[in-house]
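Researcher: Please generate the 3D structure of the following complex. Treat every line as part of one assembly.
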Amino acid sequence: MLTMGIDVGSRSTKCVILEDGKLLTYGSIETGPDIVKTAQAVVDAAVHRRTSLWGDYRMELPDVKVDHLKVEDMDFIVSTGYGRAVVPFAHRNITEITCHCRGAQWFVPGVSTVLDVGGQDSKGIRIGAKGEVADFVMNDKCAGGTGRFMEIVAEALQVPLAEIGPLSLKSEKVLAFSSTCAAFGRGAAVSMRKEGERKEDILDGLHESIANRVMALVKKVGIADKFVISGGIGRNVGLVKKIEARLDGLKVNLPQEPMIVGAVGAALFAIDLAKKKAEAPEEPVAS
Amino acid sequence: MAVVGVDLGSQSTKVVILEGDEIVGGASLQTGESAETEARMAVQEALKKAGLKREDLTAAVATGTLAVPVTAALNIAALKTRSPASCVATGAFFRFPQARTVLYVGADSSMAIRMSPDGEVEESVKNERCAVSSGALLDIVARMLEISVEELGELSLKSTNPEKVSSRCVVFAEGEILSFIHRNPPVPVPDVLAGANQCIADGLWGMVQKVGVPSDLLICGGVARNVGLVKAIEARFGKPVLLPKQPQYVRALGAAVFARNLQRQGVATC
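Model: Done. Output below.
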């Protein structure tokens, strides 16, 4: 059985295809202004095994030909993310909180807390004993604790997003950002550079600021073992290290490919729904 | 016996020269790299306008977000610094003694100040950690639409149906406004601008409410030159606000008044 999960995020869109619950292929592209086109393009990225924004592939994929696969070959497709309702070929859409909860358990069995930081929001999810969403908090009001802040500063410093993590590890001092506002971050970074400060130290300060922000958020749902980070920030080693330092001894469990956690969750729900559909073929499935 | 007030803002440096109770000169320069250089140049320009020489200045007070030691650059022996809030209050009280609450809106920061009947700061709330209630959004919108910040206010008054900005973050509002412009058909420019003004006014009004809605509200700071924003605040206030003719100079004026008081107390005899 083939199932597909599509996670239309504010900055990037991810597509995962599972074959009988095993990862067959995945891909990601930047979210464009037209979500319908973006959704079609990400399927193409997945079957041609392409990713964007954070660089190279991390997960091993089965050595089989997949580039012939089409949307019509899927038994069931579930969409998630902020643009989930607009994906034209999805059979069902499910909220990203639920999908991240499911996907995190696929990557890290027994997970209790998920911190997901995406392009324009961040959320903390507490997972209950039965694997259900026990509690969650979300910040989509302020860019201060989101990937957008990283992008703005990376752009101001002219460092590719994929390099800011490793670069920040070479820091010699933390140059704190006095404001949590991402809009001020650009000016602050530029003026620090003018004063002759090093990019490494500025990025270290940036990660400190974002780490403080997202930890305050996730503490509201409660931090417990196992703690998982998902979303684009999972690819930023500098930030992951800062978060780990604030966990009172707990370790961060990092999915191999943190960006696709939500899409994997959606594809797993698609399996359940495909089975249900097979049991009751008469019943029309709402999309 | 002239004194000078210097306001080092995040985007421009303002200078006011006072002789007694009379404003004799003023100047405003864009803030660039060195605060010292700009302060010196702005003082020179204001002196020229007043027909005075540097030796005529007997006291100086500096304030603002970039309040750095500019003593050496200005070469005025008696230079002191005062907090931005107290300078705003003092400048506002000097022009409009009846004002009880002052709303200051700068390029990067804003504050609401409640004053005592003699112009002292009683309570103030600042917004310096978040850009939403400042001029930052207007800068972004002006750049996006390729119109000058000075034109934003007048143009926004032509709006018939302001497009509501739902984000409470400048960064997200930028994306939202971008989608207004790219909508098919695009949202008319005046409606976009009026929406942006209302977004900022909402945040500012919240600050006024925190210190207490007064009988008389004064608005100052460079962003107060945006007539659309002032109108949006007035709509929430329910009546006209007090608006100085050149609201961008109020904080520098307050600094100058402090300098004059120093001089009168004899602290600043050169």
